[in-house]
Amino acid sequence: MPEEAAPAEPRGWRALVLGERTTPRGREADTAVIKAIRGTRDLLPPETAVWNFVEAEVRDLFRAYNFQEIRTPIFEETQLFARSVGEETDIVGKEMYSWEDRTRRDGERAQSLTLRPENTAGVVRAYIEHKLWERGLNKLYYIGPQFRRERPQKGRYRQFYQIGAEVIGPASAGSESAARDAEILELLATLLDRLGIEDWHLQLNSIGCSADRARYNEALQEALAPLAAKMCADCQRRAMRNPLRVFDCKVPEDQPRIETLPRMSQYLDEPCRKHFEQVQEILSAVGVPFALNDRLVRGLDYYTRTAFEFTHGALGAQNAILGGGRYDGLSELLGGPKAPGIGFAIGEDRLVLALNRPAESVQRKPDVYIAPLGPGMNSEAARLARELRCHPIVAELGDESFRLKKSFETATKLGARYILIVGEKEVKSDAFALKNLESGEQVLVPRTELPPRLRS
Ligand code: AMP
Question: Which of 176, 184, 257, 429 fits as disulfide partner to 340, beta carbons 3.0 to 4.6 Å?
C-alpha cells in the first residue's frame, strides 16, 4: 500500500483547526463551545423515533414491490456529478462540497472529490462498475444523507436525507416501459397514503428524449434571444449554455418572461408522446390523481421523458416533498451500456415535517423498569433483564444504590408500564413484586411467568 504523503502544515493551521490563539502569555487553547455547522442538525430522540417509523414503513413497502437496498459511498469523484447532473445546474455550479484530495507519494494525481449531492449518479456508477445488468432488471433503493451548500431554512438543509429508488436495466428487461414509470408513481402515492400524509399533489411532465430536447433547446434559445438581456445573470448564462435550466429560475421579475417561452409538450416526438400517454393511462387505471405541469423540468440534466414532483400543502416555500424522473441516457453518459432507468428521491426531512406526527405516537417506551433493591442485587437484576430482553421486552435497569422512591420516580419519568422489584426476598423465592404503574395494581409473579405478563 502506498503511503499517504504527510500534508504540509499550512501557516495558521493550528489557529484554524485547534482554535489556538497567540497571546502575550503564549499559546492559548480556545475553549469555546463547538456547535453543529449551519445547515446541519442533530436529530435527537424522541424525534428519531418518527424517522425510524418512516424508514421501517418505507423498507416494508419497498419489499412489497421487490426493491433491494444499495449503499453507495458518501463521497465520489467530482466528475461523476459534473457529467451526470450537469455543469450548468445549480447543484454542480454552486452547491457541491468539493475538495482536492491529497497527492499521494506514489505520484498518483490529486483527485477532486465531492460529498454526494444526490444518489442517482452513485447508483448508476455502481450499476456500471459491478455489471448489474447481468441480473436483468435492477430495482434498488437507498436511504442516506446528501449534501448541498444551499441557503438553510425550514425544510432546506446542507446535510439532508433522501429515500430514493431506481429501476434500471437493459431495455429487453422492460426498463424502458411506461409501466415502470406508472409503477413508481403508484408506489409513491401508496407510500404517502400509508404514512397518513394527505394533501399531496402529483405534478407530471415529459421532457422528451435527447432529440426532442435538442430541438426544444434551439427553440428556447431563439425565444430567449430578445429577452435574456433583461433577465438575471444566471438566466443570461443559461440562455447561452443550457436554456432548459432557465425554468429553474426563482427570480420573481423573470417569471413573466419565462411564462412566454415555448413549452416542451409541443416538441415531443411520436414515441415520447405515446410513452407519456401510456403513463397517464395506467395512472388513471390504478386511481392515482395527477396534474400536468409543462414547466416542470427538474433541476438535473440527466432526466428524459417522464419528470415528476410531489408537493405538499403544509410545507410552505419548500413544498416539494419528492421528485424524480426517467434518465434513459445516463448509463451511456457515464461510460456504461444502454440502460434505461427511472427513479425518485424523497426528502426525508420534509417527509417527517409533512407527517406532523408526535413522537410519542410511535415511540416505544420501556415495558418494565427493573429496580434492584439493596447491596448485591445488581447482578440478579442484570440476569433477569437479560432473560426478559430476549422475549423481546423493553427493559430499563436501575441501580442497587437507588432507594425505592427514586426507582419509582425514574420508572415513571421514563414512562415504563411496570416496575419490577428485585430484592433479597424476591430472589430467594424466585418470585418478584411487579407493579403496574398505570393502575397501581401490584402482584407477586414467579420468574417463568414474567415474560407473558409483561408482553400482554
Ligand atoms: P432533488 O434531488 O433536487 O430532485 O430533490 C429531491 C427531494 O429532496 C426534494 O423534493 C426535497 O424534498 C429534497 N431536498 C432537496 N434538497 C434539499 C435540501 N437542501 N434540504 C432538504 N431537502 C432537500
Answer: 176
Q: How far is the CA of 101 from the centre of ligand 1 (A)?
A: 27
In the chain, list all ranges with CATH 3.30.930.10.
Answer: 47-209+269-355
Q: What number does the ligand 1 atom closest to the CA of 152 have?
A: 19
Q: Are strands 368-372 and 395-397 parallel, antiparallel or unpaired?
A: parallel
How do residues 167-199 score in pLDDT, each as one tens digit? 999 999 999 999 999 999 999 999 999 999 989
pTM for this prediction: 0.90
**Considering the chain, what is the average pLDDT of its residues?**
93
pLDDT value at residue 181: 98
- pLDDT (tens digit per residue) in 61-72: 999 999 999 999
User: What per-residue confidence (pLDDT) applies to 1?
Assistant: 45
Rounded to whole angstroms, the Cα distance separating 28 from 366 reads: 46
Strands 68-69 and 138-147: parallel
Q: Taking 50 as the threshold, does the pLDDT of residue 104 lie above it?
A: yes
Question: What is d(CA 213, CA 373) in angstroms, rounded to the nearest whole number?
Answer: 75
* 356/335 Cα distance (integer angstroms): 43
The dihedral formed by the CA atoms of 267, 273, 277 and 278, expressed in degrees to the nearest 10: -150
Angle between helices 178-194 and 270-286 (to 10 degrees): 30
CA distance 333 to 277: 27
Residues with CB under 6 A from ligand 1: 118, 148, 150, 155-157, 160, 162, 299, 320-323, 345, 347, 349-350
Closest C-alpha residue for ligand 1 atom 17: 156
Atom nearest to 117 CA in ligand 1: 2
Q: Which CATH architecture has domain 364-455?
A: 3-Layer(aba) Sandwich (3.40)
Which of 24-28, 158-162, 400-404 is predicted least confidently? 24-28
CATH superfamily of 47-209+269-355: Bira Bifunctional Protein; Domain 2 (3.30.930.10)
Q: 340 is written with which cell numbers?
A: 434505461
| Cis, bond preceding 392 (omega within 30 deg of 0) | yes
